[in-house]
């Protein structure tokens, strides 16, 4: 499972067609994608499903892992490779029961969340926010690179993806701290050069 360059996006993050942005990012070398259609201006119902299908097809063509965020009803219709759940979503034990063979990512933002989570049931951990972000309304305060280092020390073997405020400039520091990959929204959706941005994600 290659989570090195993990792009997360929904139509609410895009100033132009999400399909075009994803196609460019896939060509530039992202290794994983998460469909996160959430927040102000996001699509619902049939429109959400239809966009998910188009984005899923792009990932399949480029051999990019496809994850669904939160909306677990979309996992089967979109034939997702996996799903990402946070501390306020479906409990990991239940998600694992329903999807024994899918890759499941779990968000962890602090030690209490780790201590109260069945981490062994997750395929990877999403650790953040590493830096300040404006892409998520309810993001926790930035936890810094120390959180990546601490998680890596506690879990030498589980894949860790840093998330939150990661840019072309600071991505390398996240990997150096022990993460296997970086997950980004705005570093790709807001850039004027997707190819350069993806290539710079260390
Ligand atoms: C890779 C990755 N890590 C963390 C998150 C955040 O998940 P969550 O805390 O459930 O918040 P929402 O994304 O659902 O708003 C993520 N999506 N992906
Ligand atoms: C979806 C998400 N989850 C976060 C967390 O801390 O769990 S931060 C975040 C948004 C990341 O967007 P950007 O790359 O633009 O900062
Ligand atoms: Mg969530």
Instruction: Please tell me what the overall shape is.
Output: globular
CATH class: Alpha Beta
Radius of gyration, taken over Cα atoms and rounded to an integer in Å? 16 Å
- Mind summarizing the main beta sheet? 8 strands, parallel, barrel
CATH architecture title: Alpha-Beta Barrel
Query: What is the total domain count?
Result: 1
Order of helices and strands: EHEHEEHEHEHEHEHH
Small molecules bound: the ligand Cc1ncc(COP(=O)(O)OP(=O)(O)O)c(N)n1, ligand 3NM, magnesium ion
Family: Belongs to the thiamine-phosphate synthase family.
Pfam family, one: TMP-TENI
Binding site for Mg(2+): 70, 89
Protein name: Thiamine-phosphate synthase
Task: For the structure shown, list the relevant keywords.
binds the ligand Cc1nc(C(=O)O)sc1CCOP(=O)(O)O; alpha/beta; transferase; TIM Barrel; Aldolase_TIM; 202 residues; binds the ligand Cc1ncc(COP(=O)(O)OP(=O)(O)O)c(N)n1; binds magnesium ion
Topology overview:
Blueprint: E1 5-9, H1 18-28, E2 32-35, H2 45-62, E3 65-69, E4 82-85, H3 92-98, E5 103-108, H4 111-115, E6 124-128, H5 145-154, E7 160-163, H6 171-176, E8 181-184, H7 186-189, H8 194-200
Parallel strand pairs: 1-2, 1-8, 2-3, 3-4, 4-5, 5-6, 6-7, 7-8
Helix pairs in contact: 1-2, 1-8
């Amino acid at each position: 499972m290659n989570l090195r360059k993990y792009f997360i996006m929904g139509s609410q993050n895009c100033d132009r067609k999400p399909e075009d942005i994803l196609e460019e990012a896939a060509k530039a070398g992202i290794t994983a994608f998460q469909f996160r259609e959430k927040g102000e201006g996001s699509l619902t119902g049939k429109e959400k499903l239809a966009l998910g299908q188009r984005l899923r097809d792009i990932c399949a063509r480029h051999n990019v892992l496809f994850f669904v965020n939160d909306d677990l009803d979309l996992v089967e219709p979109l034939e997702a490779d996996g799903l990402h759940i946070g501390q306020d979503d479906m409990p990991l034990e239940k998600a694992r029961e329903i999807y024994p063979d899918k890759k499941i990512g779990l968000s962890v933002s602090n030690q209490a969340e780790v201590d109260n989570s069945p981490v062994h049931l997750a395929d990877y951990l999403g650790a953040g926010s590493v830096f300040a972000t404006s892409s998520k309304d309810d993001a926790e305060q930035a936890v810094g690179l120390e959180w990546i280092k601490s998680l890596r020390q506690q879990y030498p073997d589980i894949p860790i993806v840093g998330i939150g405020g990661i840019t072309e400039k600071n991505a390398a520091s996240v990997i150096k701290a022990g993460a296997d990959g970086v997950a980004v929204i705005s570093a790709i959706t807001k850039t004027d050069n997707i190819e350069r941005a993806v290539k710079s994600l260390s």
